[in-house]
Amino acid sequence: MAKQLNLTSRVRAGMALERQSAEERLQEKEVAETASREAAVVVGRVPYPPVVPPSPTARQKIKIADAISNPFNPRSFYSAETIEGLARSLEIDGQIEPIKVTRLNQYPGKWVVIDGERRLRAAKSRGAEYIDAELCEEQLENRTLYLRAYKANKERDAQTVFDDAIAWKHLLDQGVYKDYAELAAAVSEASSHVNKVILLNSLPPSFLSRMAQFSNIVGLGHAYNLKLIMDRAGQAVAEHWLQEILDGRATVRRLEQAASADAPTRRGGPRRVHYQSRVQFKRQNGGALGELKLFADGRTELSLQGVNGSAQQDLAEKMKELIENWSRQLDDEASV
C-alpha cells in the first residue's frame, strides 16, 4: 500500500514539474515576442502583423450609377421579357448572386461589369440605387475581359451566335485579336465557324435582332443561309424565309436549296473574300491611323485615315518609291 502511495506521489510530482516547465516556456515565448515587437518599433517596422484586407471577392454594395457595361461584352441582345422577369425575382427573392466587376484605367471611378449585365439591367429597371458585387482586383487586359464574360455566358447557355457575331467583329476591329485564326483559338472554335458567324454582320441590325429574339429556333445554319438568300434575292425574300422558319415550315436543308437557287434578282459581282490577316497602324497618341489587309487571293489593301493635304501627297510619293523598289527587288530575285 505504501509503495502504491509513493508511486502516486511521484507521478503527481512529475506532472507538477512538467506543468511548471511548460509555463516557463510560454513566459519565455511571450517575452521574446514582446521584445521583437518593441525592437520593430525602434527600427521603424510595423510592430504588429498588418491587418489582412478583405478578400478580393468579398461581397459589397456598389452604386449602380457607377457601374458600366463591359466594353467587350460578348452579349448584344437582351430580351425585355427576361429582364422584366429577373427584376420581379430580385424584388421578391433579393439578389442571390452578386455581379462581378473590375476597375479599368480608362474608366476612372467606375465599376466595369465582367459578369452580371442582366442583373444590372434588372436592378436599374427597378430603380434600385445599389447592387451587390464582387470585385476582381487584378488588372484585366481586353482579351481576358472578353473571355471571362464569354465563358461565364457559355456555362449558363445564355450566349447566342448573334451575340458572337457582333462581339467577334468588335474584337477584330479593335485589334484585340489580329485575325480569324487567333480569335478562333481563343474561343475554342474552328476558323470556319468564326468566319461564318462574323459574316452575319452583313445582315441589317433589325433582321439580326429578330433572329436573336428567337435564338431557340434560329440557329447558325438557318442564319447563314438567310444571309446568302438576302445577298442573292433581297431582304423581302429573306424575311419570308425567316417567317417560314419561325412557323416550323423551313429546315436548314430547305434553306440551303433556296440559297443555291439562281434568283432573278441575284446580285452580280464577285463573291466577297475576307482577309486572312491584317496589320493596324496607330498614331503616337494611340489614335487609330489605318490598317493593311492581306487576302488569300493575293490582294493587299492599305487604308489610312486623317491624312490630308501635303501630308497625303508626301505619303503617296513615299509609297510609290517604296513599292517600286520592292517590285524591282522581286524581279531581281525571280531572274536569279
Tell me what you see in this structure.
The chain is an alpha/beta fold and 336 residues long. Helix content is 53%, strand content 13%. Among the domains are: 17-48; 55-159, Alpha-Beta Complex (Conserved hypothetical protein from pyrococcus furiosus pfu- 392566-001, ParB domain), CATH 3.90.1530.10; 275-335, no CATH class. The strands form two sheets. It has a five-stranded mixed sheet. A hairpin with an 8-residue loop joins β3 (99-102) and β4. The longest helix has 42 residues, at 2-43. The model is unreliable at 1-5, 15-19, 28-56 and 262-269 (pLDDT under 50).
- What count of helical segments does DSSP give? 12
| N-to-C series of helices and strands | HEEHEEHEHHHHHHHHEEEH
Nearest-integer average pLDDT: 78
- Give the amount of beta strand, in percent: 5-15%
Radius of gyration based on Cα positions: 33 Å
Q: Please, what is the CATH homologous superfamily of the domain at 55-159?
A: Conserved hypothetical protein from pyrococcus furiosus pfu- 392566-001, ParB domain
CATH class group of the domain at 55-159: Alpha Beta
Low-confidence stretches: 1-5, 15-19, 28-56, 262-269
Q: Give the number of DSSP strands.
A: 8
Q: Layout of helices and strands, plus pairs?
A:
Layout lengths: L1 H42 L15 E5 L3 E2 L11 H14 L5 E4 L8 E5 L1 H9 L4 E7 L5 H14 L5 H13 L6 H7 L4 H8 L6 H9 L6 H14 L1 H12 L5 H9 L14 E8 L5 E8 L4 E5 L4 H27 L1
